[in-house]
Amino acid sequence: MSAFLAGLFDLSGKVALVTGARSGLGQAMALALAQAGADIAGLGSSPMPETARLVERIGRNFAEVRCDLAALDDADEVVCGTTQESGPIDILVNCAGIIRRAPVTEMALGDWDEVLDVNLRSLFMLSQSTARHMVAYQRAGRIINVASLLAFQGGTRVAAYAAAKHGVAGLTRAMANELAPKGITVNAIAPGYMATANTEALREDAQRSAEILARIPMGRWGAPDDLVTAVLFLAAPASAYVTGTVVTVDGGWLAR
Q: Domain count of the chain?
């Protein structure tokens, strides 16, 4: 690879805060950013020794940020603590998310609240606080949200999740408009049907899995590594003029 191309995606000296970095999509994106040179702060409600080991094996620093996003009440404390331990944040990846499945007529209000708290409320709070710090430290920041195909569709039995992901897409665009003059880009990635813990029930349902695969032009479930190029592009210096967009990584699902 030429020095020119390598430089376009060089994240050396950057610090990335990645939520949901313990496994799945968040872990894959954290490792990709580390491979590009960034130090990683992984945020989650439980320990993530595997992610720490893999990041440090790459030769980058890893800091664990323990936080239950369902009960987040002070994002400034989280961001300040991360900044003190790892340095000013250049990249925020909001990947953490949960899903609760139930018919819309039967969904418990507690499940609705929990999904919205984790998938949208905490995402806004962390993005807001991180943006303040990026401005204060004069960072040309990158905020990357993880949306979903259900930012474009309604789905079935996932009303709270669909509402949250529609909110993520709208918030991405709204924040992009306001933060662009401050040198901060805000974009989102909308994964398709990925082989993660959130889709385990679907993949174990033979009929539903077959229906999903029949709709995907590429004929397979996505893997966490399929998001690597998207997150690197949106985090890189090369994408400084890209903001307010939602990049789908879905094997062609929405084109069907």
A: 1
In a domain, 221, yes or no: yes
Q: Which of 137, 161, 193, 241 is catalytic?
A: 161
CATH number at residue 105: 3.40.50.720
Helix axes 122-136, 159-179, angle to 10 degrees: 20
Assess whether 137 carries a catalytic annotation: no
Write down the pLDDT at residue 1: 58
Judge whether 162 lies within some domain.
yes
- Span 82-92, pLDDT tens digits: 999 999 999 99
The parent domain of residue 220 ranges over 3-249
